[in-house]
């Protein structure tokens, strides 16, 4: 069942979205080689609770962290750990969510630890193109479009480069539940699936792999990894469909909350993932 949010519900979702955007910026600025993924998790939980909110993921189906922290070949759902110490050149995917007045936000980033130069060009390109895939999808999040208009736009950024587009894990509606209808795949032909209507809020979250699209789950029953051990990138925003176009509720300060018609309207630096701080 697709839930349409009222104006006041959207205002609350904008609040929880802005909160998690701020937390992501804080983590980005703090990230450096030598930190553990548990360090990031503690910082995030403290920051979320200090703002009067609750981490969406903590305890979700028994998940132990406030963040999902997935490193290199880990795609999503990595468990924060003191034993996972980040080194320069690692890809850290930080997925975070917060609950404000019962409403969730959901947003993920991929940073290169130690700055973009720390990773080989092929990895930097993967990160940037996955981020561009997210924005290409966001631009299709318009009333009157259908769900797979988003899917096809996302996938179009991956196909020319031969990336594996993850199929087992997809975007989704967001609201009082972290995962609502509809599912938003990152692949498929345009023009199918439910119609996008004002008030619908969805998480768009491309996961592109350098190699195979195949995935596997580790023995911890959470961590999803690539089938061939090559790296993966993941970017996610929570986006509201409005009469005026897409509204990116989790946009950070270097990103447009209301992108215009096409990718040219998205700042190139944001699109390429190389902002003032670098991809990181
Ligand atoms: Mg997420
Ligand atoms: Mg999500």
**Percent in strands:** 15-25%
Strands across the major sheet, in which order?
A: 10-9-11-16-17
Bound molecule types:
magnesium ion
Compute the number of strand runs: 17
Multimerization status: single chain
Name the CATH class: Alpha Beta
Mean pLDDT: 93
Give the tally of structural domains: 1
User: Architecture in CATH?
Assistant: Alpha-Beta Complex
Q: What is the count of helical runs?
A: 5
Task: Fill in the CATH topology.
Answer: Creatine Amidinohydrolase
Q: Pairing-aware structural class of the strands and helices?
A: alpha+beta
Task: List SSEs in N-to-C order.
Answer: HHEEEEEEEHHEEEEEEEEEEH
Largest sheet: 5 strands, antiparallel
